[in-house]
Amino acid sequence: MHSMWDNYPEIKDELAESYAVIEKKVRIRNKEVEQVIFDLLHSGGKLLRPAYFILFSRFGDTETLNYKKTTHIAASLEVLHMATLVHDDIIDDSPTRRGTQTVQSKYGKDIAVYTGDFLFAVYFGLLAETTESVAAIKLNAFVMRRILLGELDQMHLRYNTEITLRQYLRNITGKTAQLFSLSCLQGAKTGKADLAVITSSQHIGHNIGVAFQMLDDILDYTQNSKTLKKPVLEDMRQGVYSLPLILALRRHKKAFEPYLSKGPDMSAEDIQAVAVLVEKYQGIEEAQKLAERYTNKALSAINRLPERPEKAVLYHLTEQLLHRNY
User: Which of 6, 108, 214, 268 is 20 to 30 A removed from 309 (C-alpha atoms)?
Assistant: First the structure.
């Protein structure tokens, strides 16, 4: 488990239990693929989505809260996240994820597709074990649909230098913010929090997710592969123009045209030249300001939540995400 949870003993034990649930559910006859899933599970993932779920579940009636149920739902959220990562790596042809070899890199795309599909099946299995509510299943299915539509929208806009900030926000709302929003909302609902908390949880999760993806995009330009534990500037190579580049393009589009006009034929030198221009035209600086704005929205809403011990944890954790380096 990521060392960051040493600072949050309030939920560390329950996250560890969620880990144990996932380990049990992902055991399969193919031990090589099973080991790759275990490697991904234990490769330093932050477990943020299950953590936010657990924290928001504490804003209701904790005396009647079924902790076995919350542990399994938390596990389902992390499995869903893992499934999307496996499929992302296939699409991006990524060699590493969290510092370890990806499934598709090690075993090929066919096995990777089946592995991702298997994780989706595990996710729905966990969901079925923990809810008798059709509404909850509909909510999860809706979120999965939004995640996939976000990915499809992103693919549709590859190598498009006309991409707008609005289109970017729509894409990341689907592919990243939806799962954060689901985690917070499902936590509040599972804990039977009052309506005001349930409503607020969804918006908090959305803003956290948007800020999280924005910072991921910033780190792609400011960190190295060793720190990020994955290739840097991979999005640009794939034609996915993220926030720093979009904002820099708005300042001086012509400066980028000699490089971006090459599309998928951009060389490594071209990509580095674009990265230099992104910094020159304040794309990173402006992106950081926007990420701070969304983080502050989340923090302000957290401040308005009822007084519970978990409130301080939520605030500190959310604030910490803006200052991470991977």
Answer: 214
Distance CA(321)–CA(315), nearest Å, equals 10
Q: What is the DSSP string of 76-120?
A: HHHHHHHHHHHHHHHHHT-SEETTEE-HHHHH-HHHHHHHHHHHH
CA–CA distances in Å: residue 208 to residues 48, 117, 158, 294, 296: 10, 27, 25, 7, 9
pLDDT tens, position by position, 162-198: 999 999 999 999 989 999 999 999 999 999 999 999 9
Separation between Cα atoms, residue 275 and residue 269, nearest integer Å? 10
| 326 pLDDT higher than 90 | no
Which residues, at least 6 apart from 319, have a Cβ–Cβ distance to it below 8 Å? 295, 299
Structure tokens at 206: 């959305």
Structure token pair of residue 90: 């296939």
Helix axes 195-222, 243-251, angle to 10 degrees: 70
- Radius of gyration of the chain from its Cα atoms, rounded to whole angstroms: 20
Q: What is the pTM for the complete model shown?
A: 0.94
Q: How many CB atoms lie within 10 A of CB 293?
A: 13
The whole-angstrom separation of Cα 304 and Cα 300 is 7
- C-alpha span between 312 and 11 (Å, rounded): 13
CB 59 within 8 A of CB 191: yes
Angle, vertex CA 223, rays to CA 236 and CA 119, nearest 5: 70
